[in-house]
Design brief:
This protein is α+β, with helices and mostly antiparallel strands and 358 residues long. The chain is 24% helix and 22% strand. The strands form three sheets. Strands 3-7-8-12-11-10-9 form a seven-stranded mixed β-sheet. β9 and β10 form a beta hairpin. α4 crosses α10.
Length: 358
């Protein structure tokens, strides 16, 4: 699902809504009172309605919905996560290597496909509607997103690609890329960050096996929605998928941070998963959110043509992990071209412990 913190406390001002924890890759902490507004250069769209802009070699016509400034557009295609020895690249390579080694498909090939170069230009339908985000949800607001025009925008989360990849027949994949949210700029906030999204779908046989003895288990039933499951899922299926999800994430975070790490799960809400959870880790005596996850809404899975499967999704922020792992104090450093910063991450082993020196 990131997804996956504008909407965190907005649903009628009472229900805890975690959408933008996923959307913002579980990166953002509470805003500092000293945070400064986005500079005019970053916040103001350039050009008039009817003029055009070029993004990744394609031209888009501006209209009354366009609000993406040149300063932001100039960073599209930088792909810091693909830049060798960049700290975001190091974190991503560690995650990818873990998935390649831990999860092998039927023919000895990696189970999870990795997509780290998909265009960040998507449609509002991909970014919101495909994920069942309500039409009046605050995460859609023009003031929180970068729209090229009414029909194209810069993705606010890598979850925007879930539907298309499932529609293409994929049942296990990672999506990595830059995502964009209008935000204040300070040491913990920046309008561009990088997210990793994962999805895994299970067929009845994959989840339960052949089960030739006794009553066969089922993935689906028609019942009522509860805090623990969707109305179309059996409890047996949900518990197995939830176990696989939490086991997968526990292994990943343990791989990154080491054994003995204290982990806890917090019930949460996302429009595109139910039940939903946030993972928190006890790092240096402080509980820190690191990702959002959950059982995918069956309506979303069905609409993508995978109606005979059930699945999970999670989203995490690469900056969030890198700042914790490498003791990087300021998110703006990730955009630095200063060799005094970059050379600290030139390591012979991607698993090497690096502690940033100011």
């Amino acid at each position: 699902m990131t997804f996956w913190s504008l909407a965190k406390n907005v649903q009628h001002h009472h229900l805890k809504v975690c959408l933008t924890n996923w959307v913002r890759s579980i990166f953002q902490s509470s805003r500092s009172p000293a945070s400064q507004p986005i500079s005019t250069e970053l916040a103001t769209a350039d050009g008039s309605s009817g003029s055009s802009m070029e993004v990744l070699g394609k031209s888009y016509t501006r209209d009354d919905h366009s609000n993406a400034p040149v300063k932001i557009l100039s960073k599209v295609g930088k792909n810091l996560h693909q830049r060798k020895y960049h700290p975001l690249w190091l974190v991503l390579e560690r995650v990818k290597r873990h998935f390649y080694q831990q999860y092998v498909g039927q023919y000895g090939t990696p189970l999870f496909s990795v997509f780290d170069g998909l265009s960040p230009v998507v449609t509002p339908w991909q970014n919101f509607d495909s994920l069942l985000v309500p039409a009046d949800h605050p995460s859609r607001k023009k003031g929180d997103n970068y729209y090229l025009n009414r029909v194209h925008m810069l993705r606010s989360h890598t979850s925007a690609h879930q539907w298309n990849l499932m529609r293409a027949g994929l049942s296990a994949f990672l999506v990595v890329g830059d995502v964009y949210r209008r935000d204040q700029i300070d040491s913990h906030h920046y309008p561009i960050f990088h997210q990793l999204e994962a999805v895994r779908l299970f067929s009845k046989r994959q989840l339960f096996g052949d089960n030739k003895d006794g009553e066969p288990f089922q993935l689906f039933e028609q019942s009522s929605r509860s805090a623990h499951k969707q109305e179309t899922h059996t409890m047996e299926a949900v518990k197995l998928v939830e176990f696989d999800l939490k086991q997968t994430l526990t292994k990943l975070i343990t791989h990154l941070f080491g054994v003995g790490l204290e982990i806890r799960w917090v019930d949460c809400y996302f429009p595109f998963t139910h039940p939903s959870f946030e993972m928190e880790i006890n790092f240096q005596g402080e509980w820190i959110e690191v990702l959002g996850c959950g059982i995918m809404e069956q309506q979303l899975v069905n609409s993508a043509g995978a109606q005979n499967k059930i699945g999970w999704a999670f989203g995490l922020g690469l900056e969030r992990l890198a700042m914790i792992l490498y003791n990087i104090p300021d998110i703006r450093l990730f955009w630095s071209e200063d060799e005094r910063f970059l050379k600290q991450f030139y390591v012979s082993d991607i698993n090497q412990n690096v502690q940033f020196q100011s």
